[in-house]
Amino acid sequence: MTLPTLFISHGAPTFALEPGIIGPRLTALGRQLPKPRAVVVVSPHWITAGLEVATSARPETIHDFGGFPEALYQLRYPAAGAPEVAAEVLEALARAGFPGRSNPHRGLDHGAWVPLMHLYPQADVPVVQLSLPMTGSPQVLLALGRALAPLRQQGVLLLASGSITHNLMDFRLGGGEAAYAREFMEWVADTIAAGDLDALLDLRRRAPHAVRAHPTDEHLQPLLVAIGAAGEDWAAARRLEGGLVYGVIGMDSYAFGVTAGGANQIDHSASTPVSAAVAAH
Q1: Within a 10 A sphere around the Cβ of 81, how many other Cβ atoms?
Q2: CA–CA gap between residue 63 and residue 209 (Å, rounded)
Q3: Within 13 Å of residue 74, how many CA atoms lie on the same side as its CB?
Q4: What is the pLDDT of residue 168?
Q5: Measured between alpha carbons, how far is 59 from 127 in angstroms, rounded to an integer?
Q6: Is the full-model pTM beyond 0.90?
Q7: Where are the domains of the chain?
Q8: CA-to-CA distance for 125 and 106, rounded, in angstroms?
């Protein structure tokens, strides 16, 4: 069994309570995929100078945000940890020249547990969180994903959590749907459909409105980790369209390494081949 890799836009923390378009699609996706041994999550809300892997057997739910409805702070995602899978992650990283260290105290930040609430709402799949490295190099992020690629064949699902657009200033100002966010999302979809990895690696220079869509790029960096982990299969991608929430926050998500048949096939009801989704716009 070889699992695909996922990039999921986790949006605002309120996504936990407001599933919108993408929430049900993630739930359908979770049902269609073979049940993994564990999910390894990379989130932009845990960035470290040296890679760290959470090894707790019972990770806590971290509410790493403020100013939201009280109901959000009452939510818990009680998935078990997977110390044995965490050890496999550390071994895979070390083999690829990415030495990491164990962190037995780290819980799940909202970049991890919010999308997981939709993907696996029963919290019945163990979760291991891996920190995002403190780097500005797209090549390093791609290489990090490639280091994790062998885990796909060992029943481990890589979930790279981020956001396809992430301008918090525009989010706070409001004002309806922003055309730039839509244009940026479609450029990403076009570029993935074309299999143009060079353009994705140079996204901040080539994509329209890239700097406005991502004033800082930590919420887009996990996309390259997901692509790297999919290996040569990365261009076999499906787009889970999520639309825009609050006018500027894109919720598009992607599954990479999805073959035409076999264990990692994804049903059309949950997603669209990227090339078909692009043609429809």
Answers
A1: 22
A2: 31
A3: 4
A4: 86
A5: 8
A6: yes
A7: 5-279
A8: 18
**How wide is the angle at C-alpha 59 spanned by C-alphas 32 and 76, nearest 5°?**
70
CA distance 141 to 224: 6
Whose structure tokens read 């009801």?
Answer: 269
Whether pLDDT at 279 is above 80: no
* Rounded Cα gap, residues 71 and 87, in angstroms: 35
Residue 244: what residue type?
L
Cβ neighbours of residue 204 under 8 Å, at least 6 residues apart? 210, 211, 214, 217
What is the C-alpha separation between 202 and 210, in angstroms, rounded? 10
Q: What integer is the mean pLDDT of 133-156? A: 97
CA distance 117 to 11: 13
- For the chain, the average pLDDT equals 92
Show the 3-state SS of the chain: CCCCEEEEECCCHHHHCCCCCHHHHHHHHHHHCCCCCEEEEEEEEEEECCEEEECCCCCCECCCCCCCCHHHHCCCCCCCCCHHHHHHHHHHHHHCCCCEEEECCCCECHHHHHHHHHHCCCCCCCEEEEEEECCCCHHHHHHHHHHHHHHHHHCEEEEEEECCCCCHHHHHHCCCCCHHHHHHHHHHHHHHHCCCHHHHHCHHHHCCCHHHHCCCCCCCHHHHHHHHHCHHHCCCEEEECCCEECCCEECCEEEECCCCCCCCCCCCCCCEEHHHHHHCC
Residue 55 near residue 130, CB atoms below 8 Å: no
The answer to whether the beta carbons of residues 15 and 250 sit under 8 Å apart is no
CB 142 within 8 A of CB 220: no
| Other Cβ atoms closer than 10 A to 68 | 15
Is 5-279 in CATH node 2.60.40.10? Answer: no
* Residues 81-99 pLDDT 10s: 999 999 999 999 999 999 9
Nearest to 2 by CA among 145, 154, 146, 136: 154
